Amino acid sequence: MSATATRTMRAVVLARPGAAHAREAPVPEPRDDEVLVRLEGCGVCASSLPLWEGRPWFAYPAEPGAPGHEAWGVEVESGRRVALLSYRGYSEYEAVPASATVPLPPELEDVPFPGEAVGCALNVFARSGIGCGDTVGVVGTGFLGLLLVQLAARAGARVLAFSRRETGLALARSFGAETPAELEDESCDVAIEAAGVQQTLDLAARLPRVRGRLVLAGFHQDGPRTVDLQTWNWRGLDIVNAHERDDRVRLQGIRAAAAAVAEGRLDPSPLYTHVLPLERTAEAFELARTRPEGFVKALVSCR
């Protein structure tokens, strides 16, 4: 057994629903095709909330570091700063295949970069087919929705943003969006649903014009949905389910996101509203669950 394998690190263990604690765990030993990454931080994703809240099909305790999947850090051997595809990001170290890392450009030195989350926005945007001069409606102004507002506005689209949260609306306006008080039915070339609940799906479906496009970017995971298929059919809508499940495509999104941020075409920094240490990961999850006014995105610092 190598010296690395005998070392310990801090890692968060989700022991049961609503309970997460930083504990000692072995530093993972990388296999031949893997690299060891000293993690700097990891974002908290709304898709992890079911595990935090508890569902009958989950087993506890979760693996140390799980379900963190928006991590970034420094490769121990090469010293390169990278974003990575990982599922144990709430820890000080993670071993992943070298192919699951994306080197970060110098412009992002010392900049928080939850690459998987920002890359998701780039992939959704690519699937959305938004062009200069389009009218785009974004329903839901959380982290993903606000990144899409930025991308659409900078692509030359007219952007309409809809939300019940003043924090999100104010940020959307600062990124160039209009925030109408009421939905403008059948007014958009592209409508993006970015919150993942029945209500936002219903609202977003009212926005596309005849032969418009409805893009599902929200993560719908709390049960079946109902849709007004008669209206969808009558208007001849194109429906795009924009979540990517192919890791190669997800890595492409992270590369595109790193380039966009480095080149100034995207700025997620105003959206990182809460940064908490590893020992307060439970608080970070609660912030993501309750979404108090002023909250957009929580990051967990692993340093």
Q: Which key phrases capture this entry?
A:
303 residues, alpha/beta, 7-stranded mixed β-sheet, 5-stranded parallel β-sheet
What sort of overall outline do the alpha carbons produce when their principal axes are compared? globular
Number of helical stretches of at least 4 residues: 9
Oligomerization status of the protein chains: single chain
Can you write the helix and strand succession as a string? HEEEHEEEEHEHEHEHEHEHEHE
Question: Helix proportion of residues, in percent?
Answer: 25-40%
User: Unreliable segments (pLDDT under 50, ≥5 consecutive)?
Assistant: 1-5
Largest sheet, strands/sense/barrel: 7 strands, mixed
Q: What is the terminal separation in angstroms? A: 26 Å
What's the alpha carbon Rg, rounded to whole Å? Answer: 20 Å
Report the mean per-residue pLDDT as an integer: 95
Descriptive notes:
- The chain has 303 residues and is of the alpha/beta class.
- The chain is 28% helix and 28% strand.
- It has nine helices and 14 strands.
- It has helices at residues 3-6, 49-53, 115-128, 143-154, 166-174, 198-205, 229-235, 247-262, 281-290; strands at residues 8-16, 19-26, 34-43, 71-75, 81-84, 93-97, 101-103, 135-139, 158-162, 188-193, 208-216, 238-241, 272-277, 297-301.
- The strands form three sheets. Strands 3, 4, 5, 6, 7, 13 and 14 form a seven-stranded mixed beta sheet that branches. Strands 9-8-10-11-12 form a five-stranded parallel beta sheet, with helices on both faces. Strands 1-2 form a two-stranded antiparallel sheet.
- α3 crosses α4 (143-154) and α3 (115-128) crosses α8 (247-262).
- It is globular.
